[in-house]
Amino acid sequence: MEVILLQDVKALGKKGETVTVNEGYARNFILKKNLGVEATTKNLNDLKLQKANEEKVKQEIYEEALRFKAEIEEKSVEVKIKAGEGNRSFGSISTKEIANAVKEQLGYEIDKKKMQLNESIKTLGTYNIPVKLHPKVTAELKVKVSAL
Description:
This protein is α+β, with helices and mostly antiparallel strands.
């Protein structure tokens, strides 16, 4: 019996796949627990439309990430830190401070966990910080660190 899975089923398949199983297994387990539906022409057509819609939504999210990347890379953020003699800083700047500065200065919400900062910034200057906006899109955020 052909069944379209509505959820991931261990050792059988992932959501949206069409699998062939014994009729008893399908009737007594998969259909009873709403893990899948029978693969009729109507259900197969619905699955095809649903997958097309999901692809369209994924493409729109990807395009939005590309637009956001272009906006971020045009602008820069300034973060101030206490500095002593010879521009040596007291403390360091982490992704949390950068995220707060982006929110205040540019008005964007960027999750600090999406910033890929290897080590915290301890010196004055300009830095390009990679920000993961989408699995395929990484933007370069320009951060200027200056003394108070």
